[in-house]
Write a structure and sequence with these properties.
The protein has 163 residues and is of the alpha+beta class. The chain is built from three helices and eight strands. The chain has one domain.
Amino acid sequence: MQRYHEHMGRGSYESLRPDLDRVPYRKMGWEWTFQTRIDGQIDAELVGDWHLFNEALADSVSSLPPRGEAGAGPSTYWVDVALTALSRLEAAGCEGLISGGNWTSFWLVDERVEARNDYGDPDDAEAITARIFHALLAEWRRRIARSESMRELPHTYRRNPSA
């Protein structure tokens, strides 16, 4: 069953990763957190019961650099890919894929962004408005760009760059 949330209630999304510095952020009635890991990656999560959406943020976007990118520290590459795709789809008045990972993807449908499990029931999706998703990505990008981390990030989970 598809879940669509117009707005969020207050809540607490507890991560099982104790190595994070959690920073709450509120905008337009929504709340999400940005977390800096010990290795320098910056994660974004919606606060509340958004399991699939948060998994898709980590899998389909993330602050990991793409495979083959030189340098250390988190990268805006995947956030930029998602922002660019979202903007292009909106400008064209189209629906379509925004970003895809290993098992999840984000799709623009009407004026909503749906997080989907690529191997699950297509009707099982979590969605927020495209406006909120854009705001989340823009803030995430700003935090990644301002990061001072110069740690080498793992190559294990990096994805190939977009074509």
